[in-house]
Automatic annotation (TrEMBL):
One of its GO terms (molecular function) is calcium ion binding. SMART domains: EFh. SUPFAM superfamilies: EF-hand (SSF47473). Signal peptide: none annotated. This is EF hand. It comes from Bradyrhizobium canariense. Residues 48-83 form the EF-hand domain. Pfam families: EF-hand_5.
């Protein structure tokens, strides 16, 4: 049986020595598009991203208070990212604040400024950062 630790060591080693895992990365981002692409055009637009983020927000809001705290976000944002996303500094994110972060990350990932994200854009650092907020 392969342990999670073994998989993480292998991925870390591959990253550190400059190796790539094309099948893993490509498959992961292609499946993300299939999951998010409700109009089946092969890309993800901002409305599709926000729809997925809104549904995830509702799922993560276990206490149903309309906000997410750091615990409910389960590592989707670093402490600094959380602080930046919390303009009123109340220690929680409302759905509007969460969706604003999603929109910022979407725009950062949209390198060709065509208002949609393809698998290549989702495989960038900015795209992966967005996907953490949608999965």
């Amino acid at each position: 049986m392969i342990s999670r630790r073994s998989v993480l060591r292998t991925l870390t080693a591959a990253t550190l020595i400059g190796g790539t895992l094309p099948a893993f990365g490509k498959s992961s981002h292609s499946s993300a598009i299939r999951m998010l692409d409700t109009d089946n055009d092969g890309t993800v637009d901002l409305a599709e991203a926000k729809k997925a983020a809104s549904a995830l927000f509702d799922k993560l809001d276990r206490d149903h208070d309309g906000t997410l705290d750091k615990r409910e976000l389960a590592g989707r944002l670093s402490a600094k990212e959380f602080a930046d996303a919390d303009p009123d500094h109340d220690g929680t994110l409302t759905k509007d604040e969460y969706l604003a972060v999603v929109e910022q990350r979407f725009n950062a990932a949209n390198s060709d400024s065509d208002s949609t994200l393809d698998a290549k854009e989702l495989s960038t650092k900015a795209g992966r950062s967005l996907l953490r907020l949608l999965k």
